[in-house]
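Appendix B, Record 12. Input sequence as logged:
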Amino acid sequence: MFETVWFEIRSAMRTLRRSPGFSLKVILPIALGISCSTIVFSVFDAAVLRALPYPEAHQLVVIESNIASFQSYHGFLALADMNDIQRQATSFEAIGSFKKGAGVNLSGEGRFDSISNVLVSSDFFKTIGAAPLLGRWLVPEDNDPANSLVAVISYSLWRTSFASDPGVIGLTVKLDNKPFTIVGVMGPEFRFPSASAQIWIPEPHTPDALTDRMGRDQSVIARLRPGVKPEGARAEFLMIGNRIGREFPEGGADLKLTMGSLQDQVVGPVKNILTVLFGAALSVLLIACANVANLFLVRNVTRQREIAVRLAHGATRVQVFRQLLAESVLLACLGGGFGVIICTWGLHLLRTIGPAYFDQLRHVALNPTVLGYAFCASLVTGVVFGTVPAWLAATTDLNTSLKNGSWNSRSADSTLWSRGLRNVFVIAQVTMAVVLAMSSAWMLRSFVHLATVKLGFEPANLQVIQLSSRTGGPGNAFFREVSKEANSLPGVESTALVSNTPFSGFSTSITLGLESSRTGWVMGPSIEFREISPGYFQTMGIPVLQGRDFNDGDKRDSPCVVMVNDQMAHDFWPDGDVLSRRIDLNGVGKGERHYCAIVGVAGNSRDIALEKQPGPEIYFPDLQFSLVSFTLLIRSRNDISLLASSLLPRVQEHNRSERFLRAVSVEELIEHSIVGPRFRAELAGFFAALALILGAVGVYGVTTYSVSRRTHEIGIRIAFGAQAADILKAVLRESLLIVAVGTTLGIVLAFSLGQIVESLLFDVKRTDTVSFLTVISLILSACFLASYLPARHATKIDPKTLLRYE
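Logged structural output:
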């Protein structure tokens, strides 16, 4: 068996060595197809297929809430809920909770860093099962408010801020000017819940937090006991959720607890995107296969006499088929080898230009799994594009081939199988090219819509400086001095303070009692809020639609006032009487009331994430509420770096420890927020362009071959008086009919598969007319050009020369 295979490989190598041009035409498209699919597969393997780097990761699950009456709580649980689950559930070894913090300032011994923090329960690390590199996990005592000033740091923070000092355990550092003791350092692979997490701090389990059913802000994970099936755990959860809802209806009588795989939740945000891109890359490979299959069909026709002679000298049809298939597989493997080389460069480029937030890119590499995929894809490709041409060639009519010879084997080429298969392969190429072009058009249109969406404010000349100081207190004098100093700089039109940095992806929410003219006082859902200084709306360019803006008279000792956005006014006070209504900061049925009057309605704005629709939002004046940190907004035409360098010395006269964490324009923040959608659109566009080129090359090749086989016929028609326009029309008609069939099938297939892509789009549907018209025009134009060039060549055939040669 081995000797037979080796003999066929050597024979194939000798044959291909005699036709290097043909070999290059086959290897190049296969290399492109294999490299594209291997690059995307390597990312898919790192982000989706590979298990999480935790012990027995398949036993890790996510516990979520589903409350129909409080949709804004969907997915989150209260600490009180988690404690009930811990006491009542028997399906789990451990249960832990976490929530993303607002960030903290790390200082001490000459260092200063603004870092991302996560508030966790004591069983958080135990549940995941990731052992610390140094020190210990958190223990139950750490959640006690009296003992909660401890922290576990990430490997990256240990290296960058502590120079990989093994003596860091027991070191006291300041987080927001509070002393914390470092008790552990996690390993390099632990980056949960996200790659940005740098420090884990125990959540203080105060008596109020352990009884509050409304403050649902915890994400909960659990580890199944060995032998427990997920179905059994889900049934147990359903009963526990029903019991909690009955006993504590103020937190949602219709509470339902759901459970899902942690792996699915982690890979969920990128799985659909990578699936679409992997499908696009495979489509490019299939187009390359169809292109190469046509090349082999044409080549085998020209080899009919050679094959007939071999059969006449005693070779069996199986032996001929085997040799021809060996040639295709050998070329596919060579193409795959070059594809792997291209893939090496491509992966390096991908890690360089890929979105920084896509943490899985750091795991992308040509590991054995990826190389195995490339090898298998090469073998399958060789078999796919080589089987049918080899079979047709091996089953040729011996007598006909020997009579006709090789130079004018039109009879061998005129069979329905041969001509039909060439057309089918071209139709397949055009179909896949249309599907890829449609997907690319949808993503490009989606990106354009996202980049040009109405923001509700004016980002031009709006600058942001994120302050490091975290000294809270109503009407904090330092923050006001910062704003005053900035306002005095040359070229500054206005300044304001806000608690949340625009386009940070981070928002804060609060649950309030709402006064309604129809239902009286009701408990509202969780509503996003921010604390602002007077002049915020002017600086942002957000219109005040009703009532008034905040002013310096809204102080601590004056009546409590708030403002709401237009969406909140529409949702909760559709009758238009919003300015006569109040909110209760303490909620409903929680003892003493704390009323605040609604004094103004502002326009809706998108300043958290571009793709996030504006929802209900409430604004609090800075002089009436305790603030921890602020971001300074500056409306100025001056460059932000010049503003920051001029402002910092003035600010440090009031607070010598102040450092600006970030100084950037809002336009830069917006640009950064659309890096991911742009990258997806560019990658899809690249695949579509490659598919379009390969498809056009396929149309050109088949049309050229058709013209060459019909040279004798065309020459006779010209000799009998046919005009060049008639020849041109005849050739184009045959070619463009094939293109029209492929385009029609591609549109139908794209519409059918569009529902997969549609979930990734912003404000674009798969029925988008502009996308369809653009793609159809592009495909028809490219294929027309690919058909016109050989058709035009056909009109220049000299019948005298041809007939003399005949």
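Confidence is low (pLDDT under 50) at residues 405-414.
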